[in-house]
Write a structure and sequence with these properties.
Two copies of one chain form a homodimer. Chain A has a single domain, classed as Cytochrome P460 (Chalcone isomerase, 3-Layer(bba) Sandwich), CATH 3.50.70.20. With 166 residues, the first copy, chain A, is an alpha+beta fold. In chain A, a hairpin with a 2-residue loop joins β3 and β4. The radius of gyration of chain A is 19 Å and the shape is globular. Chain A has three helices and six strands. A six-stranded antiparallel beta sheet of chain A has the order 1-2-3-4-5-6. At the A-B interface, β1, β2, β3 and β4 of A face β1, β2, β3 and β4 of B.
Chain lengths: 166, 166
């Protein structure tokens, strides 16, 4: 009985620590989910009319410092940008306002000019839906991301320009 | 010469302390500018198609805790919601995306069910433009704000619903 109880404690303890430690799987290119991203501060927002999604762009400490001091071309190593994406929705209380509906995904750009030198100095990662499922069949998915970002090479491969926040 | 230098130091010192202390004037209803609002965390965003503005809604610590635990009807005393508003703009790199352009204003709803009992428990405040000029000719401007929010009385007078952020 004593051994059974000990076993139960060990199993519960192991499961608990696993969940608290890293419940979300890394991407195929080995990027770990930034667990604290929703505590990061805001850099900008956007509304894509071609696919009807609303976006909020957050930054980690290094990114926020860079954005506020205008040092974003290039962004410094260590900067991470997070983009939260929702499908368009509306509220009955204000039908002429588009608001975030279903959560689509959160995606990240992680600046490390050495580690990610083949993709403009940026590591790309995306986790889909509420299940937070890593995007990409294998590590080569980053070339799909990088291809889309190549037209903004002159802005260090970043579409976002930090918004004016006085 | 010595007196002139002392005078210069005093003037510089006075101007400096004034700026660091509270450069932004309070609103006519006596609400002080929340200097740290741009470090608050994100609650939601919206895009108003009737007046072509993009918005990001942030919350102070109390508001974020309420939003994440679903305790927003009513919002707790001490919660403050900040809404940042920009005119619609576009980027040459992605013309089908609407992004924040010129900064319009930042406005706040401050929950204090006793102090602001005449306006649904909310204190209203707005600072306009990069000059951060307080909105309102006198303290009665809050009834204009409150009037607009009355249709969402059933949602504690708040238009915003916290977005899903896993």
């Amino acid at each position: 009985m004593k051994n059974l109880l000990l076993c139960c404690f060990l199993i519960i303890g192991f499961a608990g620590s696993g969940h608290a430690g890293n419940a979300v799987s890394p991407t195929p290119n080995g990027i770990a989910f930034p667990e604290d991203y929703k505590d990061w501060r805001v850099i900008s927002s956007s509304h894509r009319l071609d696919n009807n999604t609303l976006r909020v762009i957050l930054g980690n400490e290094t990114a926020i410092e860079a954005a506020r001091s205008g040092q974003t071309n290039p962004w410094p190593n260590g900067a991470i940008l997070a983009k939260l994406v929702w499908k368009d929705s509306t509220l009955p209380s204000w039908e002429k306002a588009v608001v975030p509906g279903e959560f689509v995904h959160v995606e990240f750009m992680i600046k490390d000019s050495k580690k990610h030198q083949n993709t403009g100095g940026w590591g790309f990662a995306r986790w889909k839906g509420l299940q937070q499922e890593p995007y990409g069949q294998d590590a080569s998915f980053v070339y799909e991301c990088f291809g889309c970002h190549t037209p903004v090479k002159e802005n260090d491969y970043v579409f976002t320009h930090p918004s004016i926040i006085p």
